[in-house]
Amino acid sequence: MSKLNKLIQAVKILAQKPYMINKVIDNEDVHQDEVLKIGTQYKEGIPTIDLTEVLPNFNETINPYSFLDGGSLLTDLALLKGLAKKYTDCTYFEIGTWRGESVANVAEMAKQCFTLNLPDERLREIGLREEYISQQSFYSKNLTNVTHLKGDSNIFDFSPYYGKCDVIFIDGDHHYDAVKRDTALAYQLIKDETSVIVWHDYAHTPETVRWDVFRGILEGTPKDKRKNLYHVSNTMCAIYSTTQYNELDKSKLIIPTKKFEVNLKTHSIL
């Protein structure tokens, strides 16, 4: 089929099913093309840095962890916990808590944690099941140093938290426009030049960029701060940090340069 015929067929489909335009707009290739318009240096994403350079003497225990759908990698949570450990009396802000695994791990190291999630009634409006809704903040709801905020980050008043946070974790709505909005907000939350921002799902896997999320991160980040964006090896996370790190050779990321020791132990919670 010629390109012209494909175009004609596509127009016919869109005329019959206008909602399909969203699939075109959210296509990974579209987002990748937009990223490359910002700069061809991003053709393979942002620089990848070694997890053990970010967290020297890496040794973290992750508890709790569910091994259920929708969670983070163990290394993602270890990154957050290790970063929080670097600060005296760390203040942590998280957008998107889900079961509360991430904030429950960080809370062990932080003085104060804030999390923002959609209210239960809003989750019902968008059609989520009660089983899903009941899991919100499952692990964090009884932690005394965790404040659970409710609201939509699109309209929530973040001003009381401006300039007060050491570590910010963005793991809410992963659509491009939402990531861009939450990213811009995150730069208002940082306390000073030592603060860090962490984005979950910058990558589909520790080696594969997720272009819709990356585009949101890049466009939400002030131009003068884009040089401080990194992907942390062995995780699905991107970070903003003013610390200068050594860039890894992406062509060799598939080759193991370290091994992790994982000890598993279950605890009944029912």
TrEMBL record:
Keywords, ordered alphabetically: Methyltransferase, Transferase
GO-annotated molecular function: methyltransferase activity
GO biological process: methylation
Entry keyword DNA-binding: no
Protein name from the UniProt record: Class I SAM-dependent methyltransferase
Higher taxonomy: Bacteria, Pseudomonadati, Bacteroidota, Flavobacteriia, Flavobacteriales
